[in-house]
């Protein structure tokens, strides 16, 4: 009896807006996952290089891009027929880019934010800007975060990420399209925690870069990372995030990667600040947007609105303003008083062992078994 042939599954048509290092890397992830990908680059010459030479020499030097990956500088062509649209533009330019894209978006398209920032002036997270500008159902919006250093992933070094949406079905649909042998994608429905984890770790990474530039060692950096995790968890929970998300890939995982890697733009910017460069000089030297620098002011405004203390981030603000010597950032850590303080950790009231030990155990469990530590996380 002859076997019935099954028709090959149609490739999902996706668009990626933004051809910087992360946008191009994610376009590669999607193409390697089997999607039909069109990458939008603002500059025609960059789009031409990606399409013809399969290279992006400006942002991913030495990386060969998939043969199937196409690029264009025309938004209408990039978005034509796209079922999923991944957005990777500077956070402060998101609103204007969405307004330009809106006429060409399919009404049922899923919009996925790859960005890690908050909008100046409004304090809105990127998914909130998407919802406000495009006026689409929140179930059509997803965000992706995690320990995702672009160049390492472009070299196909294995990593994991989290897709989050208020709709578990949407998160799963995006994860299906954005998973391959070197990029494993988990899902959750804690959009607030997933987004704020990606934003807040940038600020701590700037602080780590500052003390690295000054010449301080591993003890200082470990202290700032540990106290920084408490700080960003306090903030995220105050805005409705699940605390468990902050000990997962979008929180602790991303924090570790961004703080310790010289590939991190935020770490690099902080290191330049620690070496004595002004904020203006640092911005000039960086080839791409450094979201951590842009997010310090808006995050501190949001923190004050909820009565959340963020002394490490406040000290970063003072270094940026030139009112605090970079060498003085680390000794203060989280308090201006000389009185002994109790070590308040991210889950003081939880019984059963040291809180930070439990946080690391949860993170290790995620990496070993897939999915987040929060009950809402599912793979």
Automatic annotation (TrEMBL):
Residues that, per the record, bind substrate: 116, 265-266
Keyword entries, A-Z: Cytoplasm, Lipid biosynthesis, Lipid metabolism, NAD, NADP, Nucleotide-binding, Oxidoreductase, Phospholipid biosynthesis, Phospholipid metabolism
An annotated GO BP: glycerophospholipid metabolic process
Domain Glycerol-3-phosphate dehydrogenase NAD-dependent N-terminal, first and last residues per copy: 14-170
Residue ranges constituting the Glycerol-3-phosphate dehydrogenase NAD-dependent C-terminal domain according to the UniProt record: 190-329
Residue sites binding NADPH per the record: 21-22, 42-43, 59, 116, 150, 265, 291
Reaction(s) the record says it catalyses: sn-glycerol 3-phosphate + NADP(+) = dihydroxyacetone phosphate + NADPH + H(+); sn-glycerol 3-phosphate + NAD(+) = dihydroxyacetone phosphate + NADH + H(+)
Binding site for sn-glycerol 3-phosphate: 116, 146, 201, 254, 264-266
Residues noted as binding NAD(+) in the record, renumbered to the chain: 18-23, 150, 265
Family as reported in the entry's similarity comment: Belongs to the NAD-dependent glycerol-3-phosphate dehydrogenase family.
Family matches, as HAMAP family: NAD_Glyc3P_dehydrog
Protein name as it appears in the record: Glycerol-3-phosphate dehydrogenase [NAD(P)+]
Species this protein is from: Agromyces atrinae
Organism ancestry: Bacteria, Bacillati, Actinomycetota, Actinomycetes, Micrococcales
């Amino acid at each position: 009896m002859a076997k019935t042939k099954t028709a090959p599954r149609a490739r999902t048509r996706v668009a990626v807006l933004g051809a910087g290092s992360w946008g191009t890397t994610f376009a590669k992830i999607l193409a390697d996952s089997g999607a039909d990908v069109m990458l939008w680059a603002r500059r025609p010459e960059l789009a031409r290089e990606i399409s013809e030479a399969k290279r992006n020499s400006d942002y991913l030097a030495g990386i060969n891009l998939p043969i199937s990956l196409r690029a264009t500088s025309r938004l209408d062509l990039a978005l034509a027929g796209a079922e999923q649209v991944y957005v990777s533009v500077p956070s402060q330019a998101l609103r204007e880019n969405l307004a330009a894209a809106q006429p060409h978006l399919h009404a049922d398209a899923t919009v996925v934010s790859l960005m890690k920032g908050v909008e100046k002036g409004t304090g809105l997270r990127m998914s909130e800007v998407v919802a406000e500008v495009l006026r689409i159902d929140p179930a059509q919006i997803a965000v992706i975060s995690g320990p995702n250093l672009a160049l390492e992933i472009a070299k196909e070094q294995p990593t994991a990420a989290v897709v989050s949406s208020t709709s578990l079905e949407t998160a799963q649909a995006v994860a299906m399209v954005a998973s391959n042998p070197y990029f494993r994608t988990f899902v959750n429905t804690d959009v607030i925690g997933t987004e704020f984890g990606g934003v807040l770790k940038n600020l701590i990474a700037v602080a780590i870069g500052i003390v690295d530039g000054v010449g301080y060692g591993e003890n200082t950096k470990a202290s700032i990372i540990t106290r920084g995790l408490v700080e960003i968890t306090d903030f995220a929970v105050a805005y409705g995030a699940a605390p468990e998300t902050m000990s997962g890939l979008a929180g602790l995982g991303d924090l570790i990667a961004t703080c310790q890697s010289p590939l991190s733009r935020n770490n690099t910017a902080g290191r330049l600040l620690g070496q004595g460069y002004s904020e203006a000089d640092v911005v000039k030297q960086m080839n791409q947007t450094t979201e951590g620098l842009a997010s310090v002011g808006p995050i501190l405004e949001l923190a004050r609105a909820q009565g959340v203390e963020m002394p490490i981030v406040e000290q970063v603000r003072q270094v940026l303003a030139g009112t605090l010597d970079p060498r003085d950032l680390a000794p203060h850590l989280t308090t201006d008083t000389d009185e002994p303080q109790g070590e308040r950790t991210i889950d003081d009231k939880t019984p059963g062992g040291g809180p930070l030990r439990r946080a690391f155990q949860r993170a290790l469990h995620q990496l070993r078994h897939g999915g987040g530590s929060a009950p809402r996380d599912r793979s």
